[in-house]
Predict the 3D structure of the following.
Amino acid sequence: QVQLVESGGGLVQTGDSLRLSCLASGFTFSRYRMSWYRQAPGKERELVAAFISTGGILGNYADSVKGRFIISRNNAKNTVYLQMNSLKPEDTAVYYCTARSPGSSLIDYWGQGTQVTVSS
């Protein structure tokens, strides 16, 4: 059974930091391209951060989070992280972890999401 379980969300103040975690199970984690999406109230879901390649460590980031967020992964722990620094109220959203299989253009798996709320 495939599972992506996010954790680490919460209520923080402007300028604070949070680290989201996503624990994967039920598939070969190291072979999948992992990403983070978010959806704010009344807005469409958007890509926040994604690894450029399956085995790489470099990430692509939405312009709105460049220089503040960092995506990383630990294949030994089947976990992907999103380090979020200098948080702003506009970062408030539900954050989702996703997994895409090699060679696929579609996302195979989504997590249930974790809420991040940044107060001004």
